[in-house]
Amino acid sequence: MRHPQLNANGELQHLITIEGLPRDMIVHILDTAASFVGVSDREVKKVPLLRGKSVFNLFFENSTRTRTTFEIAAKRLSADVLNLNISTSSTAKGESLLDTIDNLSAMHADMFVVRHGASGAPYLIADHIDRTRGPHVHVINAGDGRHAHPTQGLLDMYTIRHHKKDFTQLRVAIVGDILHSRVARSDIHALTTLGVPEVRAIAPYTLLPTGLDQMGVRVFTDMREGLRDVDVVMMLRLQSERMGGALLPSAQEFFKHYGLTQDKLALARPDAIVMHPGPLNRGVEIDSAVADGTQSVILEQVTFGIAVRMAVMSILAAN
Amino acid sequence: MNTATLDAEAVYAALRDSIAAAMAAQPVRRPYLIGIHSGGAWIAERLHRDLAVSTPLGTLSSAFHRDDYGRRGLPAQMKATDLPFEIKGADIILVDDILFTGRTVRAALNELFDYGRPARVELAVLLDRGGRELPIEAAYCGAAHPLGPDHNFVLSRTADGRFSLRIE
Questions:
Q1: How many CB pairs under 8 A join A and B?
Q2: Is B106 on the interface with A (CB under 8 A)?
């Protein structure tokens, strides 16, 4: 069975998840992103690849950074961008998800960028569009529930490649609320596909999903042990809004055991980089001294995110 | 398949000499050479060395402005534009290998203007194969060699930097 995000020619029709994407396709996206990095430095910060196309940003969950970087990416590609704030629109009046999509499709949308609290919603939309609109409309998942956040995974890979060049010699630790994290899932699939030999997950048992060892991940509950000799530390945000029930005693307790401090970072390799998908909870999962320190590449991730999203949009639009 | 070869080194020498003659006639000019990826970049690199051009060499990708992007997408191994000098007010000789429809040159001009407003742009090509679809002509040309739309010239460069041309 073909991957639902690929078209009949094996090209990327939608970007729903990194899981199952061939290595070459991920590398092609990263290489394409590299050619877009310089666009922001030109006198004219625009290229005409999506001229005349309409990109609809559909954010059923709040987001500032992701929505803004998608918007900038689409505008740098010369697309027309419409931002729909769904929480104040028709869905709140009772319209179903697919009715909303049908109405926007009737306005000749060429691409939907979708964030939704329910895992699988972008896939549902992509499948519906394939049947109702054919192969010329594209869907990009900008984060769905606990499932996937593929463009974040790709920009994380871009950032790692920028600093470390080769994936096949790396130890990478993902730290924090892995249970609720779509970023962690996308990162794990990307890292293993790109040949990272050792991916570690560091979290208390209550914030670890099952099945990590089947994904090729080494699990540590002791952060000091897990950080030893790693090249990359990927911190995650503690997602208090997704937590029902008592998974943690308190944020202070979490920081004590799983917060990244200079002292714990010293256990990693001296040239280790520190990443975080944002927004930061300073003093909960990361100490300010580390977030603002010399090993932090957190703001570079944001900048590279624009080029990576330009790459994804331009590749989809041509397929 | 019709396979023939052309003496690419002789054609290159003719192009080099025509640019050298024009530069000798206008000694106050200090043009910048910019090669269009990938064949044009090879030619520009060689001209830059052979003519001992004192200004920095640039390379340019036409991929972002191609009019067939919707059909072909971006190339898999895309080389980025690299212009290590101020475009605004610059005197530029844009270099390509084969001049055919003129569409690549049109896209390259758009790319160039994204970096600023040059004072002047001239076009230098190794070979003009005819078949223009846009009003674009070269100021310097190694040779004119009409070729039908079913065939293509393919430029290669050996390890020691020498050119060869074949028809496919």
A1: 48
A2: no
